Amino acid sequence: MDTTEGGALGMDRADPGHRERFAIPPADGGRYAETAYLAGNSLGLQPLTVREELLEELDDWARFGVEGHLDARRPWLPYHSLLTETAARLVGALPRETVMMNSLTVNLHLLMVSFYRPAGDRTRIVIEASAFPSDSYAVRSQARFHGLDPDATVVRLDSGEIPDFLAREGNTVALLLLGGVNYLTGELLDIPAITTAAHAAGAMVGWDLAHAAGNVPLRLHEWAPDFAAWCSYKYLNAGPGAVAGAFVHERHLGDAGLPRFEGWWSTEEATRFEMSPVSRPPSTVDAWQVSNPPILAMSPVRTSLAIFDEVGMETLRARSIRLTGYLESLLDEFVPAGVLTPRDPARRGCQLSLQVADADEVTKRLRAEHGVCADARRPDVVRLAPVPLYSSYHDCWRAATALKEVL
């Protein structure tokens, strides 16, 4: 493999991606005008069309006031439905199983109201040993809400321990809630196999797809977990704190026996303005909505999902494997650090995690001295994410050579 800068530029000419669609931050340091941005697993870059399309919503608000709910060029009353089909295709779900709403942890809580129902000996919640802290906080608080001791209820396991635990103690598990791609290591879990094993043990299954949606192909309807949720500000490039997504498998839709919190948007749209005191929930995942959607926050999500719909996840996944494999080869050549992420491309997304001393200081120097944006997870993990939509082979080359110098 050609590990020179010229080699990286040549690979970009042959396999360019879609960098021209995004605003690339300027570099604060180093000899390049643009940042080598490898932090899309924390916050994706802004699609260039977001500004114009968001201004259209602002213009309609100025022009129509309240009448924009029906008269805006994209009427606000059914606005969330503009995102439904593209989001469903992205995660491999049916439109009636998919909704964009709220934020990730809010969605997890709303879904756990329905699908975490401890009873008898079946009370435990299984999460990853290295679960994202928010997920840990959420499940522990759910245990407390049900009057249970979270220390005894929440079981933290490495991914390799899960099958044996389910076979041995699955009759005590009420809910398995795992990250589809682990935020720390970048490991892609075997979602269909783990889902099947957990269901065979009698547990409900939910997936946090924050680091999987827009990163790896998903087939939620086929894999049949009970529920899933994801954010849209990482690989989906919809902006900081952007509106999240939720999935409920169709076998649960219309089940009047499921406990569920309800609100203004949980009732049938056609009857909403009858102002009835009793909700009439639809037989879709829309029944899990609580509030009317924030239009100005949903506009960038709609813009971003349209890009994924146009380019296609299979195409992006193929480029991701090439791009991440190239970065891995450069790191092996240049950098004296251990890679925590699985080496098998089928077991990872586009993130590579390195174990280094003083990760915070390393990432600060990468940015200040070399114009390379990565992120740190304390105390000793640096994460690099070559995102196939906008990252380049030259970005990977810059990151690897900068790490060589800094380390």
From TrEMBL:
Gene responsible for this protein: kynU
Record flagged with keyword ATP-binding: no
Signal peptide: none
Domain of life: Bacteria
InterPro entries assigned: Kynureninase, PyrdxlP-dep_Trfase, PyrdxlP-dep_Trfase_major, PyrdxlP-dep_Trfase_small
Pathway of action: Cofactor biosynthesis; NAD(+) biosynthesis; quinolinate from L-kynurenine: step 2/3; Amino-acid degradation; L-kynurenine degradation; L-alanine and anthranilate from L-kynurenine: step 1/1
Record's protein name: Kynureninase
Annotated spans, Disordered: 1-21
GO molecular function: kynureninase activity
Compositionally biased tracts (Basic and acidic residues): 12-21
Function: Catalyzes the cleavage of L-kynurenine (L-Kyn) and L-3-hydroxykynurenine (L-3OHKyn) into anthranilic acid (AA) and 3-hydroxyanthranilic acid (3-OHAA), respectively.
Enzyme nomenclature, EC number: 3.7.1.3
Naturally occurring in which organism (per UniProt): Amycolatopsis pigmentata
Family the entry assigns: Belongs to the kynureninase family.
Catalytic activity reported: 3-hydroxy-L-kynurenine + H2O = 3-hydroxyanthranilate + L-alanine + H(+); L-kynurenine + H2O = anthranilate + L-alanine + H(+)
NCBIfam families: kynureninase (TIGR01814)
Swiss-Prot/TrEMBL keywords: Antibiotic biosynthesis, Hydrolase, Pyridine nucleotide biosynthesis, Pyridoxal phosphate
Cofactor dependency: pyridoxal 5'-phosphate
Binding partners and assembly: Homodimer.
Residues bearing PTM N6-(pyridoxal phosphate)lysine: K234
